[in-house]
Amino acid sequence: MSDNDAALQSSPHVRFGLELRRSRRARQWSQVELGKRMGYTGAFVSYLERAKRAPTREVAVKADEVFETGQKFYELWRKYTRAALLEGFPEFADAEAKCRRLRTVGLIIVPGLFQTPAYAAALASAAVRRGAITRTEADERTEYLAVRQELLNQKAPPVLHAVLEEGCLHRAIGGPQVMAEQLCHLEELAQRPNITIQVAPFSLGENLTFTLPVVLLDLPDHSVVGYAESIAKGHLERSRAAVTAWSREYDHLLVEALPRAPSLALIRKARKEIQP
Predict the structure, then answer these.
(1) Among candidates 256, 263, 104, 108, which has minimal Cα distance to 170?
(2) Taking phi first (over 0 means left), then psi (-120 to 50 degrees means alpha), and beta for anything else, what does residue 93 get?
(3) Labelling 271: which of 34, 82, 84, 138 has CA 20 to 30 A away?
(4) What's the rounded Cα separation, in Å, for the pair 26 and 3?
């Protein structure tokens, strides 16, 4: 079986290694020489080519630089990391990356786009300790989150609106220091002109319109899609009737939630209670 045939039938992890080896041989470089050009050892290159080591974003970017391949290795890395994600999530992430407006509801934890690296790592590490995912999968998920968060720093970022249930501010993910940094990050994000953060206080009780986290995305073609997750998988909702119903419930929640300034004050208060 040729390298190309094997690549078509193998995982993204293996395809990355096969493409790295193919590109290296085309330049007639040894593994040691390629390693020097990329800033790694020849042994590390060997591990990558044989799929014994997981590629990282840094490795992919360096490979593209060395081979002058645009974003070919970067895209292979993205496919590799996406393989470890919840079923249905990669489709949502594609839509998220090109959205013009994003509306989200955060329940229990802060939504991914707004998480600090330490907060995200704490959540991933907890899943590893429970045996829900492997350490490699945890690393892949946190690396992929960093890629998603590049959306926030685009030259023309989308309009973002998040409603966070008050419990998100008080559940000490990662301990006091990590949580204080997370709340500080929310304060900073809330002051950006394209980002609105509102808090749904505990006093809403049964008037909290969502019992599961939901995301609504306005796409460039003027369509709107929704995304929600169960324990087993994620689902990108395209039905106009369903998305319209979700949008209506979201609008109700905006009316019931605290306005922008009081929400920011509550976030600050929660941070000061953790870290005076």
Answers:
(1) 108
(2) alpha
(3) 138
(4) 13
**Amino acid (one-letter) located at 110:** V
3-class secondary structure, 98: coil
Distance between CA atoms of 176 and 180, rounded to whole angstroms?
6
Kindly list the strands in the beta sheet with 214-218, ordered across the sheet, starting from the edge strand earlier in the chain. 195-200, 159-165, 101-106, 214-218, 224-229, 234-237
| The overall pTM is greater than 0.70 | yes
d(CA 6, CA 4): 5
Beta strands in the chain (DSSP E): 101-106, 159-165, 195-200, 214-218, 224-229, 234-237
pLDDT tens digits for range 116-166? 999 999 999 999 999 988 887 888 788 888 888 989 988 899 999 999 999
- Which of 249, 162, 246, 164 lies closest to 200 in space, CA to CA? 164
Place of tokens 């030259």: 155
Cα end-to-end span (Å), the chain: 64
Q: How many CA atoms lie within 13 A of 65 on its CB side?
A: 10
Cβ 15 vs Cβ 56: under 8 Å: no
Amino acid at 65: E
